[in-house]
Amino acid sequence: MLPTTTHTYSAEETIEFGQRLAAQLKPPLIILLRGDLGAGKTTLVKGIAEGFAAGSADDVTSPTFTLVHQYRGPRAALFHIDLYRVDTERELETLGLDDLIGPDSILLIEWGEKFARFARERNVEIVLERIDENERRIQVTGL
Ligand code: ADP
Ligand code: MG
User: Fold this and answer.
1) Mean pLDDT in residue range 15-31
2) In ligand 1, which atom is closest to the CA atom of 37?
């Protein structure tokens, strides 16, 4: 069992943590990634994608403008979603996220807490906090 709270001291350590975390994640799952800009949400997804053999750290880039990126692995389809630029329920609807939820899907959502539907549902939540330039506190709940 992974500890609920972890500290990492470099982006590489956060990627390694994501790789190990992936072993604990069983689809279907919605994971909310919470934390300020630069906290390390996208960096953590790099590790999770590697853990699922769905993509390399370099493959995973922020879906800031495209909103949804997909990475396909042998035991899961990962959807990395960034709702930072999505402001209304109506815009959220047009993304069709419900259609992505299938038996082998894992949705990794940045800024999902902006919307009541994700805050309400019982999801896994990962909170990242910037302690200083290279230190991050990572808290996992709901696993
Ligand atoms: P977010 O998606 O939360 O906005 P990113 O993952 O895109 O954040 O960016 C995190 C930035 O912080 C990257 O530039 C990364 O190199 C840097 N960084 C420094 N230390 C860490 C750490 N321990 N964990 C994650 N990222 C770190
Ligand atoms: Mg990001």
Assistant:
1) 96
2) 4
